[in-house]
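HOLO CASE FILE
Compound: iron/sulfur cluster
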Amino acid sequence: MRFAPIHVLPAKKGVDARDKRGPDVERSVSGRYTDGMSPKSALKATSEPVLSVVSARPTLLLAWYDRHRRKLPWRAAPGETSDPYRVWLSEIMLQQTTVKAVGPYFEKFLARWPEVTALGNASQDDVLRMWAGLGYYSRARNLYACAVAVTREHGGVFPDTEEGLRALPGIGPYTAAAIAAIAFDRHTMPVDGNIERVVSRLFAVEQELPQAKPLIRQLAATLLANSRAGDSAQALMDLGASICTPKKPACALCPFTDDCTARALGTQETFPRKAPKKSGTLRRGAAFVVTRGDELLVRSRPEKGLLGGMTEVPGSEWRAEQDDAAAKQQAPELKGLSRWQRKLGVVTHVFTHFPLELVVYTAKAGARTRAPKGMRWVPIATLADEALPNVMRKVIAHALSSGRSS
Ligand code: SF4
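Model generated. Tokens follow.
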């Protein structure tokens, strides 16, 4: 079955959009969604002229999903009921992280805490340690807070509505919609980056992100099947991940191949439209790696703020105008310490809002040197058990490498 591309303006007099192939592209061009178009009028314009095409999309999508769905550790097999705990755990882990990176963490968490009540009765330190390496650590703290809330306030049962889910720590509008649709089959469409891409291409949404989000959400909702809402959402996620990829989408394999405005225009890769990215200002600082035999000096970061509660080696503030001499003055003071050696090179790391450059100093402490207040010695052999963020792993690896110092 083939479909004419969607148009949003009335067809020219004497031209039937559904059976004349020639002018379709031209109509698609005129039919792109523009900044001035409200979501309501865009939807109205979409659905009126070609209602049969619009109403067929959810069915096409589910038919594709039934043949090509990805097997994921947290996903229920066909005919099985979804486990809200698995769905929630995977959705929190997948925020700003890839499926590939999440897989091993998901399995580890599930093996250690098979039920939400087990996670809710764990200690936050254990959860942070298990999370270490997955990044965006505020998610781990919220994950734990949510498990505690579900355990203590909801008897270990997740609320089954978007509203109820949104009241829990760390669950925003997207995650609430995803859990409601996938775990409880609520009629709602969560819109993640993959779905944004598919929808913005299918309808050729000209408006830039993030302003286009409300329009994309409403257009995405037109792809929901009357039943199987969770499968509709997962189908769009899979389509975005495996077919409608950012570069070189495999349009020939797509269920919307004859119905996609961007494809008709040959402009698939230009969607979604985005405002140019502003990169944050580079910040600089110093990290101080002190060893005492086979031990390393560490401290915990404050609970609130960037990398809250995570383990780090002592360091200076991270500032845009930092200079090396000022940073070095913030070195920890210990009795019986050797001279500070500066490792050649710098450690770089990119956070969401800014890039960071750290110079690394090393020193050795005597066997009886006590840790300064708020710091502690940990065996280097057990560092893997510490909640070390990636930036600190890089710093320690650089410090302990055999590279030259000055
Ligand atoms: S036809 Fe191509 S661009 Fe359009 S939704 Fe499918 S994969 Fe994406």
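CASE NOTES: The longest strand covers residues 283-292. The two ends are 71 Å apart (CA to CA).
CLOSED: yes
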